[in-house]
Amino acid sequence: MKFFIDTANLAQIKEANDLGILDGVTTNPSLMAKEGIKGVEAQMQHYKTICDLVDGDISAEVLSTTYDEMVAEGKLLAAIHPNIVVKIPMIKDGIKAIKYFTDNGIKTNCTLIFSAGQAILAAKAGATYISPFIGRIDDSGWDGIQLIQQISNIYTMQGFESQILAASIRSANHIIQCAEAGADVCTCPLEPILGLLKHPLTDIGLAKFLEDAKKNS
Ligand code: E4P
């Protein structure tokens, strides 16, 4: 399973990248706004900076919602760097735009997936990645991990090639459950990734090893 970090914060991207396990980055308009990145020029520059930092797929989301505008905006984003993946919302015009980019060799990430039906449609359009938002599904009283499992079963059975990019991850446990459920990628903030490191027996064990080593030195 690939690991992407879900942030536009350069310090966190660097920290995750320094671990040596990072395969890419996802951003969205809310995450860009959180970092104070405003205006087209600043956004383009920020995406370029991220592409220079991380050698992997970098999702950059379109802000338009009509086919013509999404195609025009996506072309500009894709021109920033070969690793840019154009992130497109799961709407009718979005599906048409994904098909356009598929036919023109540009990678896409279909975002805001909340059902198996949406995942089937995005795969039919040839999306490189599809992003089910498992945390937001859990927040609404449904089961996000079950959706990952369902999509994984359908894609395997039907031979769809889109990669399942589990998004809206809230915890280290979510990451483990996504791996079990068949996600190809999980994208999350730095905290859940660092959470995977933690186990009290590791800390206790290491403290004892170091203490014993001192006795012999
Ligand atoms: C996915 O690409 C989105 O950027 C993200 O995972 C949304 O997560 P949230 O529900 O924590 O906002």
From TrEMBL:
It is found in: Cytoplasm. It holds the Pfam family TAL_FSA. It comes from Parasediminibacterium paludis. CDD domains: Transaldolase_FSA. Keywords: Cytoplasm, Schiff base. It comes from the Bacteria. Coiled coil: none annotated. PROSITE patterns: TRANSALDOLASE_1. This is Fructose-6-phosphate aldolase. Signal peptide: none annotated. InterPro entries: Aldolase_TIM, TAL/FSA, Transaldolase_3B/F6P_aldolase, Transaldolase_AS, TSA/FSA_arc/bac. NCBIfam families: fsa_talC_mipB.
